Structure formats: structure tokens, C-alpha cells
């Protein structure tokens, strides 16, 4: 059975009084897409336990199936218990929380290197690529250097009102690392595929990224 590792954030606060976490639809839509294919999905986080949901990602119009996905975020597996050999792909959903803990997880960087160099799928959407910025290949080069990468853009970030609170701007960081950043207009679905690296721009891109992962795994 095909097995997917989804890595989510444990970070719950941008600053006192300003909550953050995972962007729920990015997790839920991908999780559902993988389950529909009959894949086994394991949800993990740097610390294990509960992954916080960004309250701004839920409102009165949020579909019930999206809301119900929160049950998969209550007791995540610690990354330290994860072995790459068990999985076919890794997927990093976004939410501003990922900007704080995923780049600092040495275990995640180790896993990403192993996934990528084993020619397994490495995928991320929106702020999920924050998890890629500290990842290196075994030769020490940034994993994303020279590769086509997509993520939440600086233009999109400027519309969130959070720029001054963030540890870095994701698009800027990706460009600094030598990746070829390919952006689409704000809030439109866009995916970049470079070999076994699959990245998407924003919440609107989640299903397209999941579909690209599924297509890659079906070859």
C-alpha cells in the first residue's frame, strides 16, 4: 500500500494574542485526496501530539468534511519516530505556523534529504515549503537550489498584514537559496514540478499539488 507522510506544525502563536498554526483546508484537502486513492496517511509533527489550527482558516462557510479533519491533528506522531523507508512521499501543508518550527527541525531536514535522494516524492504547498529552506543534499547544497519551486509569494504575504511579524519572507528565502521561483497571480492555483519535487503556491493550489503527487506515484 502506498504510504504518505504529512508533516504539520506545532507552532500556535505569531506573537502574544495572535494565534497561528496549520491552514486547515491545505491539510484536509490533501489528506482526503490521498485517502480517496486508498493511500495510508500518517500525520507527524516536530514535537508530536496536537497540531494547532489557524483560527483564520475556519469560518461559518467551512465545509463539514474540512472541519472533521481536525481529528487527525490531535495526536500526531513525533518526527523522531519516523523512518523514510516506510513511506513513498512526504507532503508539507502550510499555515504561518510552519514558518517557525519546520525550518528549525533537524529531523525534518534529515528526512527531506533521505526522501529526495531516495527519489521519493517531496511535496509542499503555500507556507509548507518553509520546511524545505533548511534542507540540504548530502553534498551540503540546498535541496531546492537550481530547482523550480513555488510557494506563498511576497505579494500574497503583503495582503495578510503579517509581514512585520514573520521570521522571514518565504519567496525571498527561496530565491536566496538559488531556487528558480515561479509565481502565478495572487490567489490562483499554481504548481511547479521539478522531478520528484512538487510545490504549490497557496491554499487554492492544494488539490493540484495532491493530484500531482498522486500522478507521480501512479507511474
* CATH architecture classification: 3-Layer(aba) Sandwich
Total number of strands = 11
Query: What is the percent of helical residues?
Result: 25-40%
Give the overall average pLDDT: 98
The first-level CATH class name: Alpha Beta
Strand content is 15-25%
Q: What name goes with the CATH superfamily?
A: Class I glutamine amidotransferase (GATase) domain
Low-confidence stretches: none
Largest β sheet strand count, sense and barrel closure? 7 strands, mixed
**Secondary-structure element sequence?**
EEEHEHEEHHEEHHEEEH
CATH topology: Rossmann fold
Strand order, sheet with most strands? 5-4-1-6-7-11-10
Structural class: alpha/beta
Please work out how many helical segments DSSP would assign.
7
- Rounded to the nearest angstrom, the radius of gyration is 16 Å
Give the overall shape. Answer: globular
Through-space gap between termini: 15 Å
Q: What's the domain count?
A: 1
List the helices and strands and how they pair.
Elements (H helix, E strand, L loop, with lengths): L2 E5 L5 E3 L2 E2 L4 H13 L3 E6 L18 H5 L8 E2 L10 E4 L5 H4 L4 H12 L3 E5 L22 E2 L4 H5 L11 H7 L3 E2 L9 E4 L2 E4 L5 H12 L2
Description:
- The protein is of the alpha/beta class.
- Helices cover 26% and strands 18% of the residues.
- It is built from seven helices and eleven strands.
- It has helices spanning 24-36, 64-68, 98-101, 106-117, 154-158, 170-176, 206-217; strands spanning 3-7, 13-15, 18-19, 40-45, 77-78, 89-92, 121-125, 148-149, 180-181, 191-194, 197-200.
- Strands 5-4-1-6-7-11-10 form a seven-stranded mixed β-sheet. Strands 2-3 form a two-stranded antiparallel ribbon.
- It is globular, with a radius of gyration of 16 Å.
- The mean pLDDT is 98.
Amino acid at each position: 500500500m502506498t504510504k504518505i507522510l504529512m508533516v504539520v506544525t506545532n507552532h500556535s502563536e505569531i506573537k502574544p494574542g495572535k494565534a497561528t498554526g496549520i491552514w486547515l483546508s491545505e491539510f484536509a484537502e490533501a489528506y482526503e485526496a490521498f485517502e480517496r486513492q486508498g493511500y495510508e496517511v500518517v500525520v507527524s509533527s516536530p514535537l508530536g501530539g496536537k497540531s494547532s489550527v489557524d483560527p483564520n482558516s475556519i469560518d461559518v462557510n467551512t465545509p463539514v468534511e474540512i472541519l472533521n479533519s481536525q481529528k487527525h491533528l490531535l495526536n500526531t506522531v513525533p518526527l523522531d519516530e519516523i523512518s523514510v523507508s516506510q513511506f513513498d512521499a512526504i507532503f508539507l501543508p502550510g499555515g504561518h505556523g510552519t514558518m517557525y518550527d519546520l525550518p528549525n527541525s533537524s529531523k525534518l531536514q534529515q528526512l527531506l534529504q533521505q526522501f529526495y535522494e531516495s527519489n521519493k516524492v517531496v511535496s509542499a504547498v503555500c507556507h509548507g515549503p518553509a520546511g524545505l529552506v533548511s534542507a540540504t543534499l548530502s553534498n551540503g547544497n540546498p535541496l531546492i537550489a537550481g530547482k523550480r519551486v513555488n510557494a506563498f509569494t511576497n505579494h500574497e504575504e503583503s495582503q495578510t498584514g503579517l509581514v512585520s511579524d514573520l521570521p522571514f519572507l518565504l519567496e525571498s528565502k527561496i530565491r536566496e537559496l538559488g531556487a528558480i521561483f515561479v509565481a502565478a497571480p495572487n490567489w490562483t492555483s499554481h504548481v511547479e514540478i521539478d522531478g520528484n519535487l512538487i510545490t504549490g503556491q497557496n491554499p487554492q493550489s492544494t488539490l493540484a499539488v495532491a493530484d500531482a503527487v498522486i500522478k507521480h506515484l501512479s507511474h
